[in-house]
Amino acid sequence: MIRLLHPRTWLLLVGISLLLGSMLGCSDAGSSEPGEERAEAQEEPSLAVAAVDVRPRTLTQRISASNPVEAMRTVRPASPTTGTIRRVHVTEGDRVRAGDLLAELDVREQRAELQRAQARLSREQAAYERVRQLRERDFSSQQEYESQKAERDVAASEVELWETRVEMGQIRATTDAVVTARHTEPGEAVSSNDALFALADVSTLVVRVGVSERHIPRMEAGQPVELRLDAYPDDVFRGTVRRIFPHADDDRRVRVEVALDEDARERARPGFLARLQLTVDERAGVHAVPSEALLGSGSDPAVFVIANDTLERRSVTRGVDRGGWTEIREGLRDGEQVVASNPATLQPGTRVRVSNLIAHPSDPDDAPGAVDRDATASTAADE
C-alpha cells in the first residue's frame, strides 16, 4: 500500500534537486583547461594604422614650361642698296644653300657704268704699257711714267667700284636654310637695309624658356629634357639643354635653350608649341615618408617603425620636403614599414595592424600632382 507524501515534502525534494543541479553545473564550468584561460587573459586588441613601405623612391623635382619651337638661327637678308626688284627666285618653304641667288635688283645702269669703266681701264692700261717700255729705254721721264701708272690705277678702281655695285644687285643666301618669309615682289622699290626674306636654319631647332633664378644653380648644359608637341599629343620626344644664358632678365628669370633631338627635329616645325619637363633637382633611389609621418622637433625628427606588429620609435635624418613627402637620409632600411600618419597619438610598444598601405608619388597608380609642382608654366615662364 503506497502512502502519499505531504505537499511540503514534495516542495523540499524539488528544492534539493535544483540545488544539486546548480552545483554540478559549476563543477563542469570549472573543468576548463588552464592554458586556455591564460591565452584569453594575454590576448590584447591591436590598433589599425596606415603605413608606408620603405624602399628606393624618386623625389626628383621637375618644372614645366612651354614656348614655340624656333630655328636656332634666323637670317633676314636685306637690300644692300636702293633700287627696284627685277626678279625673285624663291618663295616660302624653299630650301636654299649658302650662296644661292634669292632675288635681283635692276642694275642695268650700273652695268653700263661698269662697261664704260672697263673700256677706260683698257685704254689706260695700253698707255701705261707704252710709257713703261719707253721708260725702260730711257725715252720717257720718270714723271711721265708715274703719271700714267696713276691713271691706270684710277681706272682699275673705277672698274672695281662698278663691279661691286653690280654685285650688290644680287641678294644671296648666307647659310643653308629654309625660306620662312618673303617680303618683296618683282617691280617693288626697296630702300637700303629693307629686309626682303627670312631664312631659318632648321638644322637645329630649339625651344627657349625662362626659368626662375633659384633653379638655375641645379641645371647644366647637356642634361636631358622630356618634351611634348601639341601637334603630336600622344608622343613623347627628347631634347637637351643646349645652353643657359649668362644673365637674368628684369623679371629674374634666366633664358634656357633646349635643342630638340633628331626625332623631334624631323617632325617639328618652327612655330609648333612645345611643352617641356625640366629636371632641376635629381633625387632618384632615395628613402622618403609622408611628411605627416614625422614626429619630434625639427632638431630630433623620428618615425614609428612597425616591427613584429609593435611600434618602435626610430630617430632619422631628414632631407628635402617635396610634394607632401620628406626624404630620409639615415635611419631606415629597405623593407621596413613606417606609420604614415598621426604618430603623435601613438606610443612605443603599442600593438598595431596595417589597415591601409600608402602609395608613393613615383608608384604607377598614384594620383597626378603628388610630386612638387612649385614651378609650372603655360608660356615662357616656369611657374
Question: What can you see in these coordinates?
Answer:
- The protein has helices at 7-29, 34-42, 108-136, 142-167, 262-267; strands spanning 47-53, 57-58, 61-68, 70-75, 83-88, 95-96, 101-105, 170-172, 177-182, 189-190, 197-212, 224-229, 232-248, 253-260, 273-281, 284-290, 302-307, 310-315, 317-322, 325-330, 337-339, 352-357.
- A hairpin with a 2-residue loop joins strand 12 and strand 13.
- Helix 3 (108-136) packs antiparallel against helix 4.
- Strands 3, 4, 6, 9, 11, 12, 13, 14 and 15 form a 9-stranded antiparallel β-sheet that branches. It has a 5-stranded mixed β-sheet with strand order 18-17-21-1-22, with no helix packed on it.
- The termini are far apart.
- The longest helix has 29 residues, at 108-136.
- By secondary structure, it is of the alpha+beta class.
- The chain is rod-shaped.
- The chain contains 5 helices and 22 strands.
Compose a concise summary of this entry.
By secondary structure, the protein is α+β, with helices and mostly antiparallel strands. It is 24% helix and 37% strand.
Characteristic key phrases:
383 residues, alpha+beta, nine-stranded antiparallel β-sheet, five-stranded mixed β-sheet, 5 helices, 24% helix
